[in-house]
Design a protein that fits this description.
There is one protein chain. With 128 residues, the chain is mostly helical. The chain has one domain (6-127). Helices cover 52% and strands 10% of the residues. Strands 1-3-2 form a 3-stranded mixed sheet, covered by helices on one side. It is globular.
């Protein structure tokens, strides 16, 4: 597994962790020791490395729109360490604390557009 840089942030916009292609993995400070979450996000990082930026973003978005989050093959690959039930019902498992990766009662109740906007602002500020 290719280990990207891991950045611990105090605010992750309601998400436990996520990948910023070209920057690394961002993990909420409350999840800094959560190896299952880091492994999950590392899988996404490796998908990005394998596919390239545009293919990664395009495939992830296409699957999210056509199959939904829980049936997105890229997410299924990233949650291979979960029980079979949680692999198929990940949103419920995260919200109820059944997932190994994380527990977040507000999981996926926060707009992905907010995360995208925050990451875009971060990248713009970083490039200045």
């Amino acid at each position: 597994m290719n280990r990207p840089p891991i950045h611990i942030w105090s605010s992750t916009f309601g998400y436990n962790g996520f990948v910023i292609p070209g920057y690394g993995i961002v993990i909420n400070k409350n999840e800094a020791d959560n190896q299952a979450l880091i492994d999950h996000e590392t899988t996404h990082w490796n998908q990005y490395q394998r596919m390239g930026l545009l293919s990664f973003l395009g495939n992830y978005s296409r699957h999210a729109i056509t199959k939904g989050y829980d049936a997105n093959p890229m997410e299924i690959e990233a949650r291979s360490n979960e029980t079979p039930y949680c692999q198929e019902n990940y949103t419920e498992c995260i919200r109820t604390g059944q997932a190994d990766t994380a527990h977040n009662p507000k999981f996926r109740k926060i707009s992905p557009a907010l995360l995208i906007a925050a990451v875009a602002i971060f990248l713009l500020m970083k490039s200045e």
